[in-house]
Design brief:
Length: 353
């Protein structure tokens, strides 16, 4: 931790011990290179490099990443190895396992089932496999976990409706919500009303990627047209004061992912990153990893950056965790239990950190 954050070692270790919640983590962005090596061997897929270290440039962006498009190019590689039920189950298990090592008590892991069908899986089978991995990880780690099923912006309405139908089969049994991701600038949220009307008919909550690669109009459409109760990223909300006030007034949580947001150039640099501005104006901000594998990050690193660059105090970091718990797609009774557990853990952490 001390090598990846300019924090005293004791402070970095303390942040790793802090109990946390992860609401925005992509399954295919969470693969470890060691896992890719093993999956490639099992599936007979040739690799472009002979070692896990040498695979990193194919899986992970660096400081030279120039755009969301370049960032997303890494997923063409990682999804090659996630086309079978066992590989999806393993990836889901390991995503939660890694989150638990960072002190995570609840995680929502999202994925687009239609991207995992090249070897014959049905949409429903893909969802089943991911849910199985998450539930196995719950038992092994104690970190609660649910899936969020993603619709893709470049997919036909029929494919996205099929994803919604598959999600509905597991809603409340490992699937917590549905999402829309992909080329935000090329396919604005307003195009997907029919798809998310189906989600609402099925009684499932909605989160939408918006305000990352396109402006606040997409955030407005996500909330007012698609019925999103959370917004993925939302970094560019500040560009429209009226929409920002709407989000603040409606108390719509933002799933912010600091490291990823810098890498994709949602903002030019850390001085322009608006997380403290949003936090102090009573917008419910949450902190997430987005893609720990692609971004080379972790929940502890994300919170450490807020402490280092934005001077978030321990009570403020604790509030961010509680914001995430409050925004979790959980039944009220389960959410109350999670929040009570986190409050106890955070109070202890603040006393002894």
């Amino acid at each position: 931790m001390s090598r990846i954050m300019n924090l005293p070692e004791e402070t970095a270790a303390s942040i790793q011990r802090m109990p946390k919640v992860e609401l925005h983590m992509h399954l295919d962005g969470s693969l470890r290179p060691e896992t890719v090596m093993e999956l490639a061997h099992e599936q007979g897929i040739p690799l472009p490099a002979p070692s896990s270290r040498e695979l990193l440039p194919y899986m992970q962006v660096d400081g030279r990443c120039t755009s969301l498009t370049e960032y997303l190019s890494k997923f063409a590689f990682t999804t090659l190895f996630l086309q079978t039920g066992p590989s999806l189950e393993r990836a889901a298990f390991e995503a939660v396992e890694q989150a638990a090592l960072e002190g995570c008590k609840y995680a929502e892991v999202r994925f687009a089932p239609q991207l995992h069908r090249d070897r014959g899986l049905s949409c429903e089978e893909a969802v089943h496999s991911v849910v199985a991995g998450l539930k196995r990880a719950e038992k092994a780690t104690g970190c609660r976990a649910n899936a969020i099923v993603i619709c893709m912006r470049h997919h036909a309405v029929s494919l996205n409706k099929e994803a919604i139908e598959a999600a509905a089969l597991y809603y409340g049994r490992g699937v917590a919500a549905v999402d829309l991701a992909g080329d935000e600038a090329g396919f604005p949220a307003s195009l997907f009303r029919e798809v998310f009307l189906l989600a609402h008919r099925k009684g499932m909550p909605v989160t939408i990627h918006a305000g990352e690669a396109a402006g606040p109009d997409n955030i407005y459409a996500a909330v007012t047209k698609l019925g999103a109760s959370r917004v993925g990223h939302g970094v560019r909300l500040k560009e429209d004061p009226a929409i920002r006030e709407l989000i603040r007034r409606r108390h719509v949580p933002l799933e912010m992912c600091p490291v990823s947001n810098i890498q994709t150039k949602a903002v030019p640099d850390w001085t322009a990153y608006p997380i403290r501005e949003y936090f102090e104006s009573d917008i419910p901000v949450t902190v997430n990893t987005d893609n720990p594998g692609v971004s080379g990050t972790s929940l502890s690193r994300e919170y450490g950056i807020l402490a280092e660059k934005f001077r978030f105090t321990r009570p403020e970091l604790s509030q961010l965790v509680l914001n995430a718990a409050d925004a979790a797609f959980l039944p009220d009774s389960e959410k109350s239990a999670l929040k009570a557990e986190l409050r106890r853990g955070l109070e202890e952490w603040q006393r002894f950190a």
